[in-house]
């Protein structure tokens, strides 16, 4: 095995995929007058404070992203319409994956850009909640579209702050902590929003769209908290720029659509793996609550709990598995293991009545493993100057796949039921599996050809 089975990930992070990041050293000296440790941008204690706000920057976005899944029984009218809420989140990111980094670097700057994208998240959640309040589903869809404009770009801004404040091996830990906090947001949402809805229903006097709207407004408080974190980060980063005389952070993303024609075949296989795998994860979680209620006779609270286990496991497992992949390399093998175990989990859910906690625990571990092993492989198969384009394109087709498959999954469920839906998800994972196997053999054959080439070069010296 050659390029892909590298012994390190590189400084690359992911949330359903992020772009390349580059480490910027802090330049300049500290101010002439000594500062307390917690106020000194050069000191670790100050950077820990910054890291706390950095981690909570995306908490609200992740918390509210799966609000529909945690309140599926309250939101749903028909499943196809319900899944449009996820599709509308993904549509703007089919394009913004290419231009989000440009907007942050060249138009807004990282500080203003982070605040603007945080505002999009807040406004989107308010529109979504207002749509529920007035019982207008089209307004809910508009809210999710606006929410999507901010959500993915905010993750790019979060990564840029991390690169600007931390360096070297610190980045792996920082990215792991950020991912863990994101998964914590998703987990808290899954387990608390049903309780919030029931409490609001008790206060209002009855369940219904008005109660749903109030509950979603309450969830929006987490977005306001993230906006507060964006404002604090902007202040601290501006202050550090003044004291340390350093430049404002850049995303490091250089996107040239003309590079697409030069993408190597292994990269297209990675794209297929990405789409085939993730469309069997996020749409399933979006529909999971009712699935567990109907098939396993779970209560709504139990269904929400088992549906959240993927995120619960991902929170602590992602940094650990990332470290494991770093140390062992063999990314293709790890991706193969993740895809096979995911297929096994979906087959258990489809064809058995085993306790779903088993299958969902397997799904959570495999999801975390794939995220750690798949995204860094892009850096192993394309030159550095194409990385921004490659990651942007990968995110773009991932969001396109999620938007389309979300609608298809809703239609299948409305017309054919959960069994055929699970078969459909298994088929998607099988496509990813075939792409992984193909990638393994392509990489193996390229390694053999490279070995033969070197042997032919040195052959005259042995004759």
TrEMBL record:
Family matches, as Gene3D superfamilies: MFS general substrate transporter like domains
Membrane topology: Multi-pass membrane protein
InterPro entries on file: MFS (IPR011701), MFS_dom (IPR020846), MFS_trans_sf (IPR036259), MFSD1 (IPR052187)
Protein name stated in the entry: Lysosomal dipeptide transporter MFSD1
Protein's gene: mfsd1
The species this protein was found in: Takifugu rubripes (Japanese pufferfish)
Membrane-spanning ranges: 44-65, 86-104, 110-134, 210-236, 265-285, 305-325, 332-351, 357-381, 393-413, 419-442
PROSITE patterns: MFS
Signal recorded as keyword: no
Localization per Swiss-Prot or TrEMBL: Lysosome membrane
Gene Ontology molecular-function annotations: transmembrane transporter activity
